[in-house]
Amino acid sequence: MSAHPCVGILGGGQLARMLVLSGASLGLRFRIMDTVADACAGQVAPLQVGDYRDEAALAEFAAQVDVATFDFENVPAAGAEWLAARVPVFPNPGALAVAQDRLAEKTLFGELGIPVPAFAAVATRDELERALDQVGVPCILKTRRLGYDGKGQFRIRSRDDAAAAWEALGPQAQGVGLIVEAFVPFDRELSVVAVRGRDGEFRTWPLTANWHVDGVLSTSLAPAPQVDAALAQTAVDYARRLAGRLDYVGVFALELFCREGELLANEMAPRVHNSGHWTIEGAETSQFENHLRAVLGLPLGSTAMRGHACMLNWIGKMPDARAVLEQPGGHWHDYGKQPRAGRKVGHATLRADTPQALAQALEQVGHALGRQAQVAPPLQALHPL
Ligand code: AMP
User: Fold this and answer.
1) What CATH code is assigned to 118-182?
2) Is 25 exposed, middle or buried (0-12, 13-18, 19+ CB in 10 A)?
3) What is the band of 385 on the pLDDT scale with cuts at 50, 70, 90?
4) Which end of the chain is more exposed for a tag (fewer CB within 10 A), N or C?
5) Nearest atom, ligand 1, residue 217 CA
């Protein structure tokens, strides 16, 4: 491989953009492929517009890159496999295929002894009734594939909701498939962001606490407060088992529900993850840099934290940057996207040496931006520290 290898990224959103920005200091070159011309990573690296199923487009892409990776998991498996026959692709398409399908993923978790909420596959209206018998209510009907950020989900609070749930998602039962999952009344949501190198070296960043609004990540806090060593070790063990079984290379996130000290796996994301954005400023090596190091077969960097960090997602449109930039540990990330309802357009990370200093910064930013509701959960979590 050349001294300045070219990394190809399928998908050109903010994750690709942050991979490019972190890879620049390593002397890497990039080529992005996306289906749309205004993909925001195209502002920082050459962008090829093409369909991931188009072999001519994939061939053009493959000819330019030394290694390929993903910024989103819904690249069709056939396209990923076609590419993998021509250039090294990390994570491997088999791992991607498992993570694309909630049923395959939950089945694998079960095989690995990783606890999951009760679940059942659904292909017909009758099967939905049988699944409700088996799983119970409340539960959630989800598409098996192509769901993200809470999309493709219908909450079933009582059996009376079954008809409405089928009306909403039934048409997708034959295409992407459906799954019913028991609703978990979790105390909190945690994630482990992990990286595995080509040589099998495995590292995790400290456990992160996450808060979602309408199924979309709103806020992350690291390290997750009030996590005892045994719980953290269990989460790391689950991630390690998963990575080993999938022969995974690169960064991934394992999303977990925590209830009364027990962990249940929700899903894995086979890529750098929104709950790891704080690592850019809050860790010795960011998830983006370590993902690139992993796919290139370079030594992995330390995942140790620098103090405490809180990430606030900006959804829909960017707020005024000033309140964050005024903070000593305030960092601003604008993805260069057009504002649109529900769209992740940027984030801020507040970093501080102590929980108290982080709480103070959060309070000030929340107040200045009128986002008390968004900063309330991390403030509450930091409060006893
Ligand atoms: P997902 O797309 O599966 O990650 O779901 C997005 C968010 O919806 C999760 O982070 C949870 O906040 C919520 N959610 C999803 N599945 C469940 C479940 N089985 N029980 C409770 N909440 C859930």
Assistant:
1) 3.30.1490.20
2) exposed
3) low
4) N
5) 10
Q: Return the CATH number of the domain spanning residue range 6-89.
A: 3.40.50.20
* CA 214 to centroid of ligand 1, rounded, Å: 9
The residues, ordered by sequence, that sit 6+ positions from 253 with a Cβ below 8 Å of its Cβ are 191, 192, 193, 194, 268, 269, 271, 273, 275, 276
Q: Is the CB of 266 under 6 A from ligand 1?
A: yes
Q: What is the pTM of this model?
A: 0.96
* 212 in contact with ligand 1, CB cutoff 6 A: yes
Q: Does ligand 1 come within 6 angstroms of the Cβ of 72?
A: no
Where in the chain are the domains?
6-89, 118-182, 188-382
Q: Which fold has domain 188-382?
A: D-amino Acid Aminotransferase; Chain A, domain 1 (3.30.470)
Which amino acid makes up residue 361?
Answer: A
Q: Could you tell me which residues come within 8 angstroms of residue 203 by beta carbon, excluding any fewer than 6 positions away?
A: 194, 195, 290, 300, 303
Q: State the DSSP string of 75-103.
A: S-HHHHHHHHTTS-BSS-HHHHHHHH-HH
- Give 73-107 pLDDT, tens digit per residue: 889 988 999 999 999 999 999 999 999 999 999 99
Please state, in angstroms and rounded to a whole number, the distance separating the CA atoms of residues 279 and 208: 10
The residue to mutate among 141, 266, 271, having the most atoms of ligand 1 within 8 angstroms of its beta carbon, is 266
